[in-house]
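A.,

Following up on our hallway conversation. Structure tokens first:
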């Protein structure tokens, strides 16, 4: 392999790595639910726990920290007893939500087409073909 090809491959890998990491964070099962739940304004931990079906307290905590670290959520702690904590979307997360809404719309419009394509494919595939 030539030196220039190696350099280009390394550059592409180095640039793709952070992008893949970000997509993994925002496209995760729990992240999407959290972002959607926080769309209409500040939301408290217990509200998120009720809204995001199936998430454990631990997974919610881990995902909230990850989204806050990525700059998608702002955590606000109010000096009350007990402390009141709310989570809000950042402008960057609001932009992401608009993109997710487009993706959801696409999925809704094409779910029938995808089911039809799968059935047609499955009918043509030989048994045992892997």
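Then the amino acids I'd put at each of the 130 positions:
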């Amino acid at each position: 392999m030539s030196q220039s090809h190696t350099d280009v491959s390394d550059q592409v890998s180095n640039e793709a790595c952070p992008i893949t990491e970000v997509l993994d964070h925002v496209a995760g099962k729990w992240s999407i639910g959290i972002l959607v739940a926080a769309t209409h304004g500040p939301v408290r931990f217990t509200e998120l726990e009720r809204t995001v079906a199936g998430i454990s307290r631990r997974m919610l905590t881990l995902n909230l920290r990850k989204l806050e670290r990525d700059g998608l959520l702002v955590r606000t702690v109010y000096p009350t007893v007990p402390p009141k904590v709310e989570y809000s979307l950042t402008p960057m997360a609001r932009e992401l939500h608009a993109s997710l809404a487009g993706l959801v719309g696409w999925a809704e419009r094409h779910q029938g087409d995808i089911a039809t394509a799968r059935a047609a494919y499955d009918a043509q595939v030989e048994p045992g073909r892997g």
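The beta strands are 43-44, 73-78, 84-89. Curious whether your intuition agrees with the design.

B.
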